[in-house]
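Hey, I'm writing a tutorial for new members on how sequence and structure tokens pair up, and I'd like a real worked example in the thread rather than a made-up one. If someone can provide the structure for the chain below, I'll link this post from the tutorial.
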Amino acid sequence: MASHKGYKTTVGRGVKPIVLQPGQFVSGSKKLSSEIGVPITTIKRIISVLKVDHQIDIEKTRQGSVFTIINWGQYQWMDTEVDHERTTNGPPVDPIQEVKNVKNVKNNKTYSVNFEKFWSAYPRKMDKKKAYAAWKKLNGVMPDIDTLVATIETQKKSDQWMRDIIPLPTTWLNGNRWEDVFGVKTHWTDKE
């Protein structure tokens, strides 16, 4: 559906052609609904979620809506043949790590590989930019990434987190919440 190479296209008659870049396509809710066989309301809800998650961007034009898949190039490494064999004396190249080091074109923001590992492990995905700012402030003060991820996995099994009472990632980082101890039940009484 999305173009792999830039090209000119026209939508409708007597309309000025538009140039689509890689990762773009022209469509609309009705057309997507009929092509995919999903109700328009579902299509609109999915589009809304994808926009909020910064996975797509939509520019409305006279020719139709131009959908842009954010970070299209990052996802395309899967379409190319990757040689996983070591060809030098250096460390092997991990294509996933390389993708995570690529700049986010929309925000012109680069996140460190370790932050991306934290972000993928953390169950509540809100305010990534603020969480990254908190991450950078803690540089060198927090444990290594494997310890953080292990702590998150442990805390995911706690009563609090199982009841979906999960702090924002920024709160978790600023509060050094990896030091929290879960599983200890405290009983409070009004008699004291």
